[in-house]
Every structure is written in structure tokens, then in C-alpha cells.
Amino acid sequence: MQRAQEILERVFGYRSFRLEQSGIIEAVLAGRDVLALMPTGGGKSLCYQIPALVRDGVGVVVSPLIALMQDQVNALAALGVRAAFLNSSIEPWAQRVVEDDLMRGELDLLYVAPERLVTERMLGLLDSVPIALFAIDEAHCVSQWGHDFRPEYRQLRVLASRFAGVPRIALTATADARTRAEIVGELSLERAEQFVSSFDRTNIRYMITEGDNARERLWQFIAREHPKGAGIVYCLSRRKAEEVADFLNRKGREALVYHAGLEADVRRRHQERFLAEDGLIVVATIAFGMGIDKPDVRFVAHLSLPKSIEAYYQETGRAGRDGEPCDAWLAYSVSDIVTYRQWIDQSEAADDFKRVSHGKLDALVGLCEAVGCRRQRLLAYFDERHPGNCGNCDNCLEPPETLDATVAARKALSTVYRTGQRFGMAYVVDVLLGKADERIIRNGHDRVSTFGIGGELDAAAWKGLLRQLVAEGHLEVLQDGFGGLKLGDRCRNLLRGEATFHIRVRQKAPSKRGRSGRAATSDKLSERDRRLFDALRSLRAELAAAESVPPYVVCHDRSLVEIVERRPRTHGALHEITGFGNKKVQSYGAQILEVVARHDA
What we know:
- The protein is of the alpha/beta class.
């Protein structure tokens, strides 16, 4: 561990370990297997990078993410670490160069895609070189119950038998109890030490909104909260992603689209621009973002429901990796719930898988419809207790008004029953409000006892009530492609008067509350310090462009703020700045010190 501490300071420029890093590194250095669960931005990479530099041999990192491999190798090269990757994105001649470096012992870390690693050719190469460790990143991909199942991950169990003396470390940021158990079983990690850090990302503010016109509400959120910050907007379909990107561009914010239907070169250019430039927005399907280390993403927005709480947690975790204030904003509608339920039920998956998928969707809808602390409910999903009242979610900052809607709920359930349990939400609401249109008259539903008895609520409120009845299992959505409603198993007690039902009172307009107290560290600088900060950012952009890497590979904004605050005058003083190890001081020190001196002259 003394050697590990030395590498932490000399190579990576940090003074101390975070969260469970120390215990994990100590276990791997001792040759023991590890399962590590750490939040996005919690420093998982150091847990295998440092042991790989301490132990003899090369550290082999299994990752399904081409973007992450490139990003990690660039960052390690900037630190003076000998790293390379093997995946389908590089030419055969370049692959041979990497393999030759591997055989000569000239690599500290090698990143490999799982499908390549388990080939007999790759395993044969590794048989002939000393291996420091195997790191299996994104280990949740091994679980068929997870949100990002990759079948090839299950073949990685071969590492346990073929390289029996080599420690293995499996890492993930998202895994509930079922997924953890499957990781252990599928990767033969029964004897592994398990380290579970808190899942709480305290710098993320969670905000969830329901209803219509989500695109306009998204714009109001961006304009109010993040007029200049970088962000990611997730959409369910390619078409919607393109429409939203066009909408934001017309509003005056530069937005790039990213989805699998674009040419590979277009996707690559858009990703590179997002990483290198400030203040860009990417509107994407879920194909974008995995493995992206950009630290200053200020918001992640969803214009439709993610597939599960795990997916939501991982996607929102791409915001605020630098620890600065950021937002996770989600807009959803009942149609999202209907769509996902149809996908699940119409799939060819086994019944057990469908039941688990429905359970995951129900948990996510429950988070959306919650009237209490979002963070408490989110963490509870990962078996972590939180006292609530986090002070950094919409429900805690502006507690929603609730209404005892027991009587209204019974009216709604009765209307669903009396109209035949086959009509959708809009139709049921029209019956409750007494709208005698042609279809209702033709069906004779203008003569049911519940016709026109819903005057205490408007149409939007009735839709919200029906949505919450679905969320809590009192109503179910028919798998007929039309979103018809039927009574659910849980409605009996409510209809019998043995239970009550409270609903959120829907906001008529978005909150006007601003970002009071949530300014980023750099925003709190004085005018004089801000000028130096901006000059350092300009220098960083020049250095990054010269090396063809994103600016954060040179250093993070927080490091620049620390330079502004400390005003280092020597290379030794610069070495005390977080993130500045020997190689970065050597590479960039003279130019940084010159900028500081010039602004203080």
C-alpha cells in the first residue's frame, strides 16, 4: 500500500484515496478477487489502474465500450502510463503493434473487448505473458436481469480456471441484489471480497415532471437552469431525438443528434465535439454516453421513461462527475408506461424475465409518482437507507401538494368497470366529465351511472389520477396496442372503502425557482480571479487541441479553480494541485505558471 500511495500521488496527482478505494486496492494487491460497486464518478478506474502499476505484469481490462477504452488510454498516456486497447475500431496493422508491445512487456494496461478476450487466439497471447490482474468493468452486463445484458460477458468465467492465480476485480455502478448475485455466480466470484459504496450522488438534483408538452418544459428548464452548460437529452426513438435537437437549435442552443441510424463518422464527430467543446447539448437515444468521462456535464434530461431504475441511475450518473452541482430532469407520460408494458409482454422472453421486467418498470413508475423524497426512494431500490428530506430533489425543495382523492379514485375505477374495461385514459376522462361525443353515445356510455360525475377535477387532473392508479396497481393497461384500462388486483380494498388514495396536485406551470446556492465553484470566483480562470481554460484548450484529446484529459475545471486560488509559482507548488502528477507538471507546468505570473504582474 505504500507503493500504491506513492503512485496515487506521483502519477495521478491525488493525496488520498476516496470511498472504498483503499480497501479494494489492498485486496487486489494481496491477490484476492473483488466485487466493487461504486457510483459513477466515484473513482472505480483507480481501483484497478493502481494495482496494475504495482503488481508485476500487465493489467487486462475488459470493457464493452469502445469510447471508454479510447478515453481511458488517452488519459493514461497524459499521465505517462503505458496503455493501449484492442477492439474493432483499429486497423489490423495497429492491432499487431499493440500485440507486439504486449509480448515485449511494454504495456502497463491493456483494454480489450469481451468478445475478443475470450477468443482462443487472445487467450493464447495472454498465456505467454505475466498478468497483473483482470478488471471486468461494467460487470452488470453479465446479468440477464440487468438493463444492459451482454451475452459475451458470461464467457468471461473462463478467466477463473485458465488464470487461476490472477486476481480478478469486477466493477459496476448499478446493481441491485439480484444482479449482484448473478455477477458472483456467472463470473465465479463466490470467494471475492465485496465492497459496496454509497450510491448517493449528493451533487445531483433529481427533478421529475409529468404531463403534456414535455419539449417546451424541457426548454424552460434548460433556459432557466443551464443557459450555457453542457447536457445530454435522452429520447426513446431516433425520430424524436432528431426533432428535439432541431427544436433546441431553433431556440438558440447548439444541439447535436446521436443515434444508431447515423453514419459512424457522424456519430464519431458529434461525440468528439461534445467531449472537446463547452456548452454543447447532445440529444440521443440510450446508445450515447456509456463510458463517457466528460466531467462537466451539467444536466441529463429524459424526455421519456428509461427502462428501469438501474438505467435511470446510470444515465443520470453521467452528470456532474466533477462533483459540481448538476441536474437530472425527467418528463414522462402514461404513454411511456403503456409502450414499455407492451414491449415486455410482446417480447419472446421467458415468463420469469417478463415478471422481473414488469417489477422494474413498476419501481420506476413508483419513483416518478412519489410524493416524498426522490433520493430516499432511489437509494432504497439499491438496498441503501436514506433518512429522506435530502434537500436536493424537487419533492424536498418544493413539497408537492397532495389531495385526498379516495372518492374520485372510486369514481374512476367504477367508470373503467362500467364502460367494459377496454377503453383508454382519454375516453374514461370524457365519460367522467360528461362529454357526449359520437363514440360515447354510440357505445351507450352516456347512460352509465358515472357519466358526468367528475366535475370536481379537470381533464389534466383526472389523467394524473388515472396514471397514479396505474402506478400503484389499482388499474392495469391492456396489451391491446391502444392503452385500454382494466381493474387491477389491488383495487378491491379501495372500492370497498377499506383504503384511501392520495394524489399529487399537478403544477399548472413550471417552478420559477432558480439555482440559488447551487452555483459551480468557478461561478463563485471574483471578477479578477475569473479572468485568470478563463485564461487557464484557453490555455487548456490549446494544449488539448495540440494533443488531439478532450480538454478534461489535460485537467478538470476544479484543478483550474485550485490553481486560481493557490496561485502556484513553482513546479513544486503546482504538484500540490489535485490531479497534477509528475508527468502533467512536466508537460504543462511551464505554460501554466507563465499564465499565472502574467495575470498577477
